[in-house]
From TrEMBL:
InterPro entries: PHP_domain, Pol/His_phosphatase_N, Pol/histidinol_Pase-like. This is Phosphoesterase. SUPFAM superfamilies: PHP domain-like. Residues 129-191 form the Polymerase/histidinol phosphatase N-terminal domain. It comes from Paenibacillus cisolokensis.
Length: 432
């Protein structure tokens, strides 16, 4: 079964509470399904006209109480990493759960309580967010709550707070944020920056003054499970001047608004791909404070993750399942070869299916480019007749990889700039 097509589990139960049950705690049992990602529960209380009932709310899993909000709430949610205040996030283990109803005040004629339960299951899908931003925990002006609220308003799924050389932000994340908050830190030296993602405390002390010290910090972060991203390596002001070692498997090729330093990194990345290095390209806004040009999720990093969780998103990045767009509502372009997508490797044999490019939210005049280790393979102008979308097939063989770019004329600056870019699909040469 296509797990992307699996919808949430939804159930509604009605429980009649009699006056004689006042003061008791009533359980409404339900089964938590395997591979659950998020639980949402809401209740409504029906009484005779003019009557009032006070029914408290909580929930237990198969082992323990997972939350209690009394009469203060009529709904809550629990995820693996975030939950409504009063409720404990964590694994949603399959088994027998129960919504808890506290019959605090019940009218003489009783009342009816409707309990609505929605369980969202883990399913792979495209998620969008920002992997590089700052807050008041370093040199940014936004609070953690403000950053999370802005990202949620943009329709994003995740953000990484990568404050400079500190991890205090990771301990202060709002527990009820609507977006996934990825632990992060920007390891900031006088000769280059790199993000350390996925671990609350990747290193204990950032201070490094030589290559050996930098190597030691990076090694420690990796040993603790952090994902290392080489940031804006060709920036005019803070480029990476340490070694470009083979350890760097993920590079920020797009930092903030598209500019010449990003172009240099894009060219460098393509050169590495031609040399056979499979480096994952990501982007980040590097947002610090209100700015007319630099904005949250500009660019947007799209990740095909197995779940809307830190682990699911980081696993998707590590696999190269990443597409970049200039904004959350900018063009989205994907590549598929059979059941393989960007970041995957495909045997380049006679039975290989064609690569299918699918693009959405295009504009007339956009240029779609397919690029391999031989250079630009296709360069197609989008017309008004395309209706904002395009589907292309590419059949050639004998390449190391194929990736896609979309270039657009932005009237605001009267320049043609990158609007979207994919990671490659790689080809394994046919043996014999």
């Amino acid at each position: 079964m296509d797990r992307e097509a699996i919808g949430p589990v939804q159930k509604v139960y009605t429980r009649r509470i009699e006056a004689a049950e006042q003061g008791s705690y009533i359980e409404v049992p339900f089964d938590m399904v395997p591979e659950a990602e998020r639980l949402h529960v809401s209740i409504s209380v029906g009484t005779a006209q003019g009557r009032t009932a006070v029914i408290d709310l909580g929930v237990r899993d198969a082992v323990r109480l997972r939350g209690w909000s009394g009469g203060a709430r009529r709904e809550f949610q629990i995820g693996r990493e975030r939950a409504t205040p009063g409720y404990t996030p964590g694994p949603l283990e399959a088994g027998g759960w129960a919504v808890l109803l506290g019959a605090y005040r019940v009218p003489q004629e009783g009342c009816d309580v409707s309990v609505s339960i929605t369980i969202e299951r883990e399913r792979p899908r495209w998620l969008k967010g920002d992997l590089h931003m700052h807050s008041v925990h370093s040199d940014g002006s936004y609070t953690l709550e403000e950053n999370a609220a802005i990202m949620a308003e943009l329709g994003c799924d995740f953000l990484a707070m990568t404050d400079h050389n500190t991890t205090s932000q990771n301990a202060a994340y709002p527990r009820d944020a609507a977006v996934v908050m990825i632990p992060g830190m920007e390891f900031t030296t006088n000769f280059g920056h790199s993000n350390m993602l996925g671990v609350e405390v990747p290193i204990d002390d950032f201070r490094s003054v030589d290559q050996a010290g930098v190597n030691d910090k990076l090694r420690t972060a990796r040993e603790r499970g952090a994902m290392i991203v080489l940031n804006h390596p060709h920036c005019d002001y803070c480029p990476w001047e340490w070694e470009f070692s083979d350890d760097f498997g993920i590079v920020e090729i797009w930092n903030g608004p598209w500019h010449e330093a990003n172009r240099r990194t894009l060219d460098w990345w393509d050169e590495q791909l031609r040399k056979g290095r499979r480096i994952v390209a990501v982007g980040g806004s590097d947002m610090h404070r209100p700015d007319p040009y630099r904005k949250h999720a500009h660019p947007t990093t799209w990740v095909y993750g197995r779940s809307r969780t830190v682990d699911g998103i980081l696993e998707g990045i590590d696999a190269g399942h990443v597409v970049l767009s200039w904004a959350p509502d900018g063009p989205f372009v994907s590549l598929a070869c059979g059941d393989r997508i960007v970041g995957d490797a495909v045997a380049d044999d006679s039975g290989r299916p064609p690569v299918i490019l699918t693009a959405e939210r295009l504009r007339e005049g956009d240029a779609i480019r397919l690029i391999s280790d031989r250079g630009v393979e296709r360069d197609i102008a989008v017309s008004a007749a395309d209706g904002g979308s395009a589907v292309l097939e590419w059949h050639e063989r004998g390449r190391q990889y194929i990736r896609a770019e979309i270039w657009r004329k932005f009237e605001e600056v009267d320049r043609v700039l990158l609007a979207a870019v994919t990671n490659p699909i790689y080809f394994e040469p046919q043996e014999g």
